[in-house]
Amino acid sequence: MKTQQETIQDFEIFEDWMEKYQYIIDLGKELEKLDDADKIDANKLQGCQSQVWIIHEVKEGKIIFKAESDAAIVSGLVALVLSIYSGKTPQEITETEPTFIAEIGLDKHLSGTRSNGLASLLAKIQEVAKNYS
């Protein structure tokens, strides 16, 4: 679990966007795979061009998210978001604005469809958190 500031600092070491994209892809490779039983329509994220499945469980008052995508860059974006939001309380999640997206420049370097997918992922995480608030 990282803070947004730690994530921003991670991206500051890279000189260009090719290196940043590679880092994002590498993050995606570290995502824990979901069981095939979890890859059902009910767990599929709507609003994503790629396929993304997201599940969650609550442990000791904290929401643990797990997700997987069939696309490399999207998997990395999912890993990035989950590193900030997974393992936090519903209140912490709802109070955490995703400022890291603009801070690292993702808002200017993602295609429209990826930006929409990222927004859908963030909205889903917020929705889950609000349901437990």
Written description of the protein model:
The protein has 133 residues and is α+β, with helices and mostly antiparallel strands. It has one domain (4-132): Alpha-Beta Complex (Sufe protein. Chain: A). Helices cover 53% and strands 12% of the residues. It is built from 7 helices and 2 strands; from the N terminus they run H-H-E-E-H-H-H-H-H. The protein has a two-stranded antiparallel ribbon. A hairpin with a 2-residue loop joins strand 1 (52-59) and strand 2 (62-69). The longest helix has 21 residues, at 112-132.
Q: Work out the helicity level.
A: 40-55%
CATH class: Alpha Beta
Class of secondary structure makeup: alpha+beta
Shape: globular
SS summary, helix count? 7
Indicate the CATH topology.
Sufe protein. Chain: A
Q: Sheet with the most strands?
A: 2 strands, antiparallel
In the residues, how many domains can be counted?
1
Distance between the termini: 20 Å
Mean pLDDT equals: 94
Helix/strand order, N-terminal first:
HHEEHHHHH
Instruction: Determine the strand fraction and express it as a percent band.
Output: 5-15%
Radius of gyration: 14 Å
| Major beta sheet, strand line-up | 1-2
pLDDT below 50 for ≥5 consecutive residues: which ranges? none
CATH architecture: Alpha-Beta Complex
Count of β-strands: 2
